[in-house]
Design goal:
The chain has helices at residues 30-36, 50-63, 77-86, 153-168, 170-175, 191-194, 199-206, 213-219, 242-248, 278-282, 286-297, 304-314, 318-326, 339-346; strands at residues 12-17, 20-28, 68-76, 92-97, 107-109, 112-116, 123-129, 137-143, 252-253, 258-259. With 352 residues, it is α/β, with parallel strands linked by helices. It has two domains: 12-143, Purple Acid Phosphatase, chain A, domain 2, CATH 3.60.21; 153-284 and 316-346, no CATH class. Strands 1-2-3-4-6-5 form a six-stranded mixed beta sheet. Strands 7-8 form a two-stranded antiparallel sheet. Strands 9-10 form a two-stranded antiparallel sheet. The protein binds heme C (4 copies). One heme C binds at residues 191, 194, 198, 201-202, 205, 210, 276-278, 280-282, 316-318, 321, 324, 346-351.
Length: 352
C-alpha cells in the first residue's frame, strides 16, 4: 500500500502542467520531528536533519530544471522562514505549522512566497502563478467544506482500506491500548439494566442523539445534519475504530481513547454498551444495580449505608454536568457546543 503516492513519502517530484515544470519537495521540521517521533520510537525510522534534506532534494530537483520550486513545510512558521533564508531559490513555501484556521494572507519573505494552510486538511491553499513581472502570484485559501466538495474515490478507498485493517487486526489494535479499570472500582452494565427502574430517564435518553451515537458510526449522520448531500452508501462504517468508539460507545476514557475493562469492545461482545449511555455520565453502575435489585426484593438484606453510598456515586447535578460534557464535546468534535443550549436537550427529571 505504500507504493501509492498518497501514503508513500517521496523526496521530491516534478509536476508538469500547462507548459510549466514545478519541482516539489517536502520536509518535516525539527520541532515536529520530536513531537511525532519521540526518541524511543526512533528504532525503525531514521530522520534526517531538515536543512540537509532540503539541500539534497533541491540539488536533484535543479538538475531537472524546474520553472518553480515549491516546499511543503511540515514545520513551524519560524522554521519555514529559516528554510527560506537558507534556500532563497524556493519560490513558494507552504507551511502547515501556523494557525489551525489561518487567514489567506500572502507573506513575502525576500522573493519567496510563504503561505499558511492550516491544520487537519480543512483547507487547500490554491496558488495561481502568472508569468509576469508584477504580482505573479494569486492565493486563495479554500475551505474544504462538504457543501462544495464531495469525497474523492481515492481517499474513500484509503479510508476503507484503513477501516479494513482495523477490523482484521482488532485483537492487535485493542491489545495495544492500555489495560484500565475504572477508578471507581465499578463496572459498566448497560442501559437495559437502568431502564428497569428509571423509566423517565430512559424514555428521555432514548429520544436524544446520545442513544444513536453508535448507529452514526455504522450508518453515518442523519441526512438533516449533513446538509443532505451525503448518500448513505458513501459512508464508511467506523465501528472498529478506537478513535471514534471512544465517544460514540459506553465505557471508554473518551479523551485518551481506550476502553475500561468492562467497556464496549465490539457489537458481538458488548452490544448492550452501544451509544453514549447513562453510565458515561453517571459512572459505571454494577454495584448500584446489584444492591438496588436486592433492596427491591428484601430491604433487610442490604445495609442502607451501602445503598446510599452507591446512589451518591451515581448522583450528578447541573453544576457537575459541564465537566462531564466536555469530555466528549471538545473543540475537535463539537466546536459549536454551548452548554446552556445543549443541556435542556438532554435533561431528564424523575428518579422513577
Ligand atoms: C433495581 C432498580 C434500579 C436499577 C436497575 C438502577 N437504579 Fe438507579 N436508583 C434506584 C433507586 C431506588 C434510586 C433512588 C431513587 C430515589 O432517591 O428516589 C436510584 C437512584 C439513581 C440515581 C440518582 C442518584 C441521586 O440521588 O441523584 C441515578 C443517577 C441512578 N440511580 C442511575 C442509575 C443508572 C445509570 C443505572 C444503570 C446502570 C441505574 N440507576 C440502575 C434504582 C435502580
Ligand atoms: C472526543 C469525542 C469524540 C470522538 C473521538 C468522535 N466523536 Fe463524533 N461526535 C462527538 C460529539 C460530541 C458529537 C456531537 C457534535 C455536535 O453535534 O455538536 C459528534 C458527532 C458526530 C457526527 C454527527 C452526527 C450527526 O447526525 O450529525 C458524526 C458523523 C461523527 N460524530 C462521527 C465520528 C467519527 C467517524 C469519529 C471517528 C473518526 C468520531 N465521530 C469521533 C464526539 C466524538
Ligand atoms: C449526557 C449525560 C447524561 C446521560 C447520558 C444520562 N444522564 Fe442522568 N443525569 C445527568 C445529569 C447532569 C443529571 C442531573 C440533572 C439535574 O440535576 O438537573 C442527571 C440526573 C439523573 C437522575 C436524577 C433525576 C432527578 O430528578 O433528580 C437519574 C435517575 C438519572 N439521571 C438516570 C439516568 C439514566 C437511567 C440514564 C440512561 C437512560 C441517564 N441518566 C443518562 C446526565 C446524564
Ligand atoms: C461519552 C461522550 C459524551 C458525553 C460525556 C456527552 N456527550 Fe453529548 N454527544 C456525544 C456524541 C457522540 C454525540 C453525537 C451523537 C450522534 O449524533 O451520533 C452527542 C450529541 C449531543 C447533543 C446533540 C447535538 C446537538 O448539539 O444538538 C446534545 C444536545 C448533547 N450531546 C448534549 C450533551 C450534554 C449537555 C452533555 C453533558 C451533560 C453531553 N452531551 C455529554 C457524546 C457525549
Amino acid at each position: 500500500m505504500f507504493d501509492d503516492p498518497i501514503m508513500g513519502p517521496r523526496r521530491f517530484q516534478i509536476i508538469e502542467k500547462n507548459g510549466l515544470k514545478i519541482g516539489v519537495t517536502a520536509v518535516l521540521g525539527k520541532s515536529l520531528q520530536k513531537e511525532y517521533f519521540p526518541e524511543e520510537s526512533q528504532t525503525d525510522i531514521k530522520i534526517s536533519d531538515p536543512v540537509e534534506a532540503i539541500k539534497a532534494s533541491l540539488e536533484k530537483l535543479k538538475e531537472l530544471k524546474p520553472d518553480l520550486l515549491v516546499l511543503l513545510s511540515h514545520a513551524s512558521m519560524d522554521e519555514s522562514k529559516e528554510y527560506i533564508k537558507q534556500f532563497p531559490e524556493l519560490n513558494i513555501v507552504l507551511s502547515a505549522g501556523g494557525a489551525e484556521d489561518p487567514d489567506d494572507k500572502m507573506i513575502m519573505e525576500g522573493n519567496s512566497l510563504l503561505l499558511n494552510v492550516g491544520h487537519k486538511g480543512k483547507y487547500a491553499g490554491v496558488v495561481g502563478y502568472y508569468d509576469v513581472k508584477e504580482k505573479p502570484y494569486q492565493f486563495e485559501l479554500v475551505d474544504l467544506d462538504n457543501q462544495r466538495f464531495t469525497e474523492t474515490k481515492r481517499m474513500q478507498d484509503h479510508m476503507q482500506a484503513y477501516q479494513n485493517i482495523l477490523k482484521e487486526s482488532a485483537d492487535e489494535v485493542f491489545g495495544s491500548l492500555p489495560e484500565a479499570f475504572h477508578p471507581s472500582g465499578s463496572t459498566f452494565v448497560g442501559v437495559n439494566e437502568c431502564r428497569q427502574c428509571h423509566k423517565k430517564a430512559y424514555n428521555k435518553w432514548k429520544t436524544t442523539r446520545h442513544a444513536r451515537a453508535y448507529l452514526t458510526l455504522e450508518e453515518g449522520p442523519l441526512p438533516e445534519h449533513d446538509h443532505g448531500n451525503k448518500k448513505p452508501q458513501e459512508w464508511i462504517p467506523r465501528i472498529h475504530d478506537p478513535e471514534c468508539l471512544s465517544c460514540h460507545t459506553t465505557g471508554w476514557e473518551a479523551q485518551e481513547m481506550y476502553p475500561y475493562d468492562s467497556g464496549f469492545k465490539n457489537a458481538e461482545k458488548s452490544p448492550y454498551l452501544k451509544g453514549n449511555q447513562c453510565e458515561n455520565c453517571h459512572g459505571p453502575g454494577n454495584k448500584h444495580v446489584d444492591l438496588e435489585k436486592i433492596w427491591k426484593k428484601d430491604q433487610k438484606k442490604v445495609s442502607m449505608d451501602d445503598i446510599l453510598a452507591q446512589r451518591k456515586h451515581m448522583h450528578l447535578d447541573k453544576t457537575m454536568a459541564k465537566d462531564v460534557c466536555y469530555r466528549c464535546h471538545d473543540l475537535n468534535n463539537s466546536p459549536k457546543f454551548n452548554f446552556d443550549l445543549a443541556y435542556p436537550l438532554i435533561q431528564h427529571i424523575g428518579k422513577d
